[in-house]
Amino acid sequence: MFDILIRGGTLPDGRVADIAVRGDRIAAVEPAITAQAGRVIEAAGDLVSPPFADPHFHMDATLSYGIPRINASGTLLEGIALWGELRAIATVDEMVDRAMTYCDWAAAMGLLAIRTHVDTTPDHLRGVEAMLEVRRRVAPYIDLQLVAFPQDGLYRTATGRANLIRALDMGVDVVGGIPHFERTMEEGAESVRDLARIAAERGLMLDLHCDETDDPMSRHVETLAREVTRHGLGARAAGSHLTSMHSMDNYYVSKLLPLMAESGMCAIPNPLINITIQGRHDTFPKRRGLTRVKEMQALGIAVGWGQDCVLDPWYPLGTADMLDVAFMGLHVAQMTHPAEMARCFTMVTETNAAIMGLKDYGLRKGALASLVILDAGNPTEAVRLRPDRLCVISRGRVIAEKARNDSRMALPGRPASVARRHRG
Ligand code: FE2
C-alpha cells in the first residue's frame, strides 16, 4: 500500500512509468505498479519531472518593485543604488512577508529549491535575520540556501568583511562575493582569494557574483578558478553571471575555459537579467551580455540557469517560473538544436540541483518524493509552452494542484479545447 501513485506519466528521459510514493520518499519507479495507493493521480500524456531548482536569486529584495522608486536607467549600478535606499527602510517583517509570497508563487510553479543571496552590507543585518526566518518557515516544502553576499563589496565598506563573517556565524549556508565591484582589480582578486579561503576553512560552498560587467578586462573568474583548484572546492564552487566573458578576447577565453574545467567549478548565468541589464552603455551594436554557455558546456563545465530577480530594483518582471528562465536562455544562447532545447530543461532541474548540492534529488527509488506534473508531453514542449503545473508534490505531500485548464491559451470566443492543439 502506497500513499500516492502517479500513473502513466512521461519522465524527462522519455520513459513512461508509474511512480509510487510512501512517506516522504519515492518507493518505486516502474512501468506498471499494481499495488493500491491512498491516492491515485492519472498523468498519462503529462510530463512528470523532478522539481525545478533556482541556484541564483535575491529574496531579500523580491516583490519590492517601485519601493521607494523604480530603476529609471535600467542599469545594474542604479539598481544597486536603489537597493541601498530600500534596504535602509525595509523592516524584517516586510522582507519576510514579501519573501513568503514569493515562496508561494515558487511552490505553485514546482520550484522547490532556491539559493538566495542575502545582502550582508548593513550593520543591522535585517535581511539576514529575515531570510533565516523564511528558511525556517519554508523548510517543510522548499530547500532554501542562503548566500552571504557583500553587495557593496567585501572591502569597500569598513564592516563589509566582518558582517559577512557575522552572517555565516548566524547560520548562512554559502560564501558569496562581488569582486568586480571592489575598488580595484587587485582588491577584487584579493577578495576572491579571501572568500575561497573562508569557504574552505568552514567547509562551505562558494558562489560569487563574478564579472557581472561588460568590461572584457574583468577577469576575476580566472582567479576564482585558480582558488577553486587550490582549495579543491570543485563543484562546490560557482561563478554567477560571468557576463564579461561575452566580451572577452577569444584567444584569452581559449585559455580560461580549460582552467575553469580543470577546477571543476560551476557557472550560473542569469539570462532574464543579463539580457536586460548588460549592454546598457553600448550604442549599436548592443552586446547581449550573456556568458558563453554552450562553449563552457562543451568542456564539461556544469552550467545552470538562474533567475536572479523578480519585481525588484533590477528587474520589473518575473513569475517564479524557471521555464521562463530556460526559455530566455535558450534564445539568447541560441540553443535551438533539439538536444540543446532539451538540455535547457535539464539545466533548470537536474543541473541546478547538482550545483546546489541537493541530496536525494531525482525521480528514482529512495529519493525524496518531490516532483511536478506539467501539462506538456516532453521537456522541450515544456520550455516552449511554459505550461500549467497540474500537481506539485514536496516530500510526499501534495502542496499545489491545478485543474487541467486549457483556457490560458484559448482565444476569446474559441472553445478551450482548441488550445490543446498547441501541444505536439
Ligand atoms: Fe545576483
Helix amount, in percent? 25-40%
CATH superfamily of the largest domain: Metal-dependent hydrolases
- Count of helix runs: 12
What is the correct CATH architecture of the largest domain? Answer: Alpha-Beta Barrel
Structure notes:
With 424 residues, the chain is of the alpha/beta class. It has 2 domains: 2-50 and 362-408, Urease, subunit C, domain 1; 52-355, TIM Barrel, CATH 3.20.20.140. The chain contains 12 helices and 15 strands. It has helices at 76-89, 92-108, 126-138, 160-169, 185-202, 220-231, 250-263, 271-277, 293-298, 322-332, 338-355, 379-385; strands at 2-10, 16-22, 25-30, 37-42, 47-49, 52-57, 111-119, 143-149, 174-177, 205-210, 237-241, 266-268, 371-374, 389-394, 397-401. The strands form 3 sheets. A 7-stranded parallel sheet has the order 6-7-8-9-10-11-12. A 4-stranded mixed sheet has the order 3-2-1-4, with no helix packed on it. A 4-stranded antiparallel sheet has the order 5-13-14-15, with no helix packed on it. Helix 4 links the parallel strand 8 and strand 9. Helix 10 crosses helix 11. It is globular, with a radius of gyration of 21 Å. The relative contact order is 0.15. The model is unreliable at 407-412 and 414-419 (pLDDT under 50). The site of fe (ii) ion has 5 residues, from loops.
